[in-house]
Amino acid sequence: MMSHSNAKGFSLIELMVVMAIMAIVMGLTGGLVTKAVDQQTRQVELQKVRQLFKRLSYQAYYSGYPIALRMQGSQIKVTVNEQVTIMDFEQLVFSPNDYLIATNSQISPTSYKVLWNDTIKEFQLDSMFKKYEN
Hints:
Blueprint: H1 12-63, E1 67-73, E2 75-80, E3 83-88, E4 94-101, E5 107-108, E6 111-116, E7 119-124
Antiparallel strand pairs: 1-2, 1-4, 2-3, 4-5, 6-7
């Protein structure tokens, strides 16, 4: 017969206890991790919106055609020369509004609103050309 005194390794009960402890720790920290990931995704999407308006300002200025945008829900609908492009966002929910980027790169209106943690936050849109102060 084999002697149990020189057997190496973990028993099944020890492994189950370790797995239970890990499950509890993951359950407690999992919500924090997903919240941080959602926050980071929201920041990246806000940067994408800023870059989109900047790129479209240049496009309107150099092409000579105005560009229309419609923000609604989690989408931005861009219309350039009757050609429509739709962008979907995962984390951002926009307050419905229409925007016009003129050929002088001026954006009207100059801000947009996003639903952020059950409140509405307003973000300013920068023009391609900064106005000079006296």
